[in-house]
Amino acid sequence: MNQVYIHGVDSVKRIVNGKVVDEAMVNANYDGSNLDIQTYNKGKRQHIKLDNKDIMKLLSRPASSMSLEKRLMQDFKVKSVMRKKTKSRKMGKKSKKTRRRKSKR
């Protein structure tokens, strides 16, 4: 029988003018049946344990009907940016190159 084990770690530290302004960390371990997640963000630690049934419940939730772009714009309160369409050049018939004759001296 194959055994699954996954380990993931991520951390972020934002420094402005030499001082730590924000710091976050996540550490996750999955042994094939249980997912153990430890997080640290804004001075708070959290510990979450999920079994395979919990994970399947999370994955079975329906996706949002709103596009990812709209959700990001809404979450981060960014005004919609109009994309400029570039003018495309129409390619005409290729012109034939003419050869220059060498002049005799």
Can you describe this structure?
It is elongated, with a radius of gyration of 29 Å. It is built from two helices and four strands. It is an alpha+beta fold. The chain has a domain of 70 residues.
How helix-rich are the residues, as a percent range? 10-25%
- Basic shape: elongated
Task: Work out the helix count.
Answer: 2
Determine the mean pLDDT: 83
Query: Care to count the β-strands?
Result: 4
Uncertain residue segments: none
Q: Give the neighbour order of strands across the main sheet.
A: 1-2-3-4
Q: What value does the Rg take, in angstroms?
A: 29 Å
Secondary-structure element pattern, one letter each: EEEEHH
- The structural class is alpha+beta
Query: Biggest sheet, in brief?
Result: 4 strands, antiparallel
- How much of the sequence lies in strands comes to 35-45%
Distance between the termini: 90 Å
Map the helices and strands.
Blueprint: E1 6-16, E2 19-30, E3 34-41, E4 44-51, H1 52-59, H2 68-75
Antiparallel strand pairs: 1-2, 2-3, 3-4
List keywords for this structure.
four-stranded antiparallel beta sheet; 4 strands; elongated
Structure at a glance:
This protein is α+β, with helices and mostly antiparallel strands and 105 residues long. It is 15% helix and 37% strand. It contains two helices and four strands; from the N terminus they run ββββαα.
